[in-house]
Design brief:
358 residues; alpha/beta; TIM Barrel; eight-stranded parallel β-sheet; two-stranded antiparallel sheet
């Protein structure tokens, strides 16, 4: 594994944010770009289909209200509205050749199985329609509602076999139940049989909705919830039992880079954990993939590369919650070696999703 330390970024936050408004698209192209032709592959890219948002709000009106300072069913302030045309325009301006769409929180589940089935099917059908319209430009991670395991198993079959989804999109917890719980085992066994890519995005945990009033939950709770879920998958033995699933943990793996050593050190205090991880904790963590969304600083990238191979770090933007230009600028400022930058921005994703080669 390549453990090279990347150069420190000397651009101040104020200079960086201010510069975003004046830099043209060509100035934001990384050193890997040889022309204006889009080349990046974005694996952390949200879509907001109006008809699905309306369905979510109709079935559960509570979702239309802000939760922890975070609005669930509306595009972020960056966009007044979302359409496929707006998405493609933003990709073209910022050198993104293809994006794999995933739904923003809260997905489909709110304790009502029939409603969850409607929502996830509507979202998956809509996303598959964008793929039909923009075959070489778009992919999608299919939405599931894992607390309804039987229905999720049927949706896996439909999404992967009929809709040809590029993978499955899950959240870090469902009503406080993390993905390593035994109830979810049949779903992961099926995904392992299919050698599926599984993209896991954080969501708020019921325990921690208002830990620090005035601090939006996505600032701290999202990265911590990603890490809680990694520990759940790891300590339960799910990662060991499902070696053929390609797990992608968003946002640089949360705070895993800081806690990886502690997770291993204290594992012996948990009965049966090491027996469930016969190849060892470092081996299983080394298999995880992650993306760069919201983690494009020298400290963040260096930390991620300390626990994951350089082949497992993928380009992600978190559009439209963050501007694509911001992701490009952040990565370019670190001045990564050319080969590593090419791998992050394109080649690592193509190894997982070769159909996006274009």
């Amino acid at each position: 594994m390549d453990r090279r330390v990347v150069d420190a970024c000397c651009t101040s936050r104020r200079q960086f944010i201010g510069g975003l408004t004046t830099l043209g698209a060509s100035a934001l192209m990384s050193v890997t770009a040889k022309s204006q032709t889009p080349f990046r592959i974005d694996v952390h890219h949200h879509i907001f289909p109006r008809q699905v948002l309306d369905l979510q709000e109709k079935l559960n009106p509570a979702w239309s209200q802000p939760i922890g300072g975070f609005r669930l069913l509306r595009p972020p302030p960056l966009l007044k509205e979302w359409t496929p045309a707006i998405m493609i325009e933003a990709m073209d301006k910022n050198g993104v050749a293809a994006a794999i769409g995933s739904p923003p929180a809260p997905g489909a589940w709110f304790g009502n199985p029939p409603a969850a089935r409607q929502i996830m099917r509507a979202w998956n059908e809509y996303a598959a329609g964008i793929v039909r319209d923009y075959r070489s430009r778009f992919g999608f991670f299919a939405m599931l509602a894992p607390p309804d395991v039987d229905c999720s198993l049927k949706e896996i079959e439909y999404a992967l076999d009929v809709l040809k989804a590029d993978g499955i999109g899950l959240y870090s917890n469902y009503e406080g139940k993390y993905l390593g719980e035994q109830a979810f085992a049949p779903m992961f066994d099926e995904l392992n049989r299919r050698k599926a890519a599984v993209y896991i995005h954080p969501i708020f945990a019921p325990c921690c909705m208002d830990v620090q009033p005035g601090v939006r939950i996505n600032l701290l709770e999202f990265p911590f919830d990603s890490t809680r879920n990694i520990v759940s998958l790891l300590y339960s033995g799910t990662l060991s039992r499902c070696p053929d699933i390609r797990f992608i943990i968003s946002h640089g793996g949360g705070v895993l880079p800081m806690l990886a050593g502690r997770i291993e050190l204290l594992s012996e205090e948990h009965k049966g954990v090491n027996e469930r991880i016969p190849r060892g904790i470092p081996y299983e963590l080394d298999r995880l993939y992650s993306d760069t969304a919201g983690t494009t600083s020298a400290a963040s990238i260096n930390a991620v590369l300390s626990v994951m191979p350089k082949t497992n770090l993928l380009y992600g933007t978190d559009f439209p919650f963050l501007p694509i230009a911001q992701a490009n600028q952040g990565l370019a400022a670190i001045k990564l070696p050319l080969e590593l930058m090419q791998a992050i921005e394109r080649h690592n994703a193509l190894a997982l999703f070769p159909r996006l080669k274009g």
